[in-house]
Every structure is written in C-alpha cells, then in structure tokens.
Design brief:
about 25% helix, 3-stranded antiparallel sheet, single chain, alpha+beta, about 130 residues, 5-stranded antiparallel sheet, about 30% strand
Length: about 130
C-alpha cells in the first residue's frame, strides 16, 4: 500500500522519462486518471489508456520522446500538497510555474485542472503538483 498515491504517480512518470521508457504502468484511481488527462492536454505526455478490470486496473502512460530540436517534453514534476500538509490557493493566489512555462495542477470543486483554467474560471483549490 502506498501512503501517497499522487506522489507515486509523479515518481513513476519521472523515473520512466529519465530511463527513456516508452510506456509506464500505474495503478488506477479516478484522481490519477484526471491528472494524467491534464498532462496529455498540456502536451507533457503523448497518451494514456486504462487497461484491465477492477482488481488490477492500470493506467498505461505513453511518454513523449525527446527530440533534437525541442529537447525533453517533461523536465520536472514536483508534488506540492501531501497527505500531511495540504496546500490551498485562492483564486488570486494561484501560482505560476517558471513564469508561465510550466503548469500548476489544481484540484478544485469543478475537478482537476491547470492553474490557468482555474484562474480563468475564478476559482481556487488545492495545489496538487507543478509540472515543467
């Protein structure tokens, strides 16, 4: 059993990217699926699919390959909130990651979204992670 499943998700993706793996398998949960969807929408990973049935359901993430001209698609992932220390941001306090080059993933009352989307909608929430 993992005490922080979101940190486990980010660590698996980070380690897979550093080891130049094509895909990474992650145990499924609804929140993890939404976070991976945000990463796909923002262009940090290629795609994902949910495989298996209920007891052994997995999310298989296809990582982007580094290109000579663009470099790595995923340079870093950082967990902000943890089970023992939740970090919240109001609509005016949503953080910018690397002056807009990165993305803050926010858990709001309307679901998981980027900091830009939350700011546009005028809502705050829990700051889950930074991705750049």
């Amino acid at each position: 059993m993992v005490s922080d499943p979101i940190a486990d998700l980010l660590t698996r993706i980070r380690n897979g990217a550093l080891a130049h793996h094509a895909t990474v398998a992650i145990p499924h949960s609804g929140m993890k699926e939404h976070i991976v969807k945000v990463l796909v929408d923002e262009g940090f990973i290629d795609s994902f699919e949910v495989t298996g049935d209920i007891p052994e359901k997995n999310i298989v993430v296809t990582l982007k390959r580094a290109t000579r001209h663009q470099g790595k698609a995923l340079n870093g992932l950082k967990r902000v909130s943890s089970p023992g220390r939740r970090v919240y941001a109001g609509k005016q306090e949503i953080p910018r990651v690397l002056n807009g080059l990165g993305v803050a993933i926010i858990s709001t009352s309307r679901g998981i979204m980027t900091g830009r989307e939350a700011h546009h909608l005028g809502i705050g929430g829990e700051v889950v992670a930074y991705v750049w």
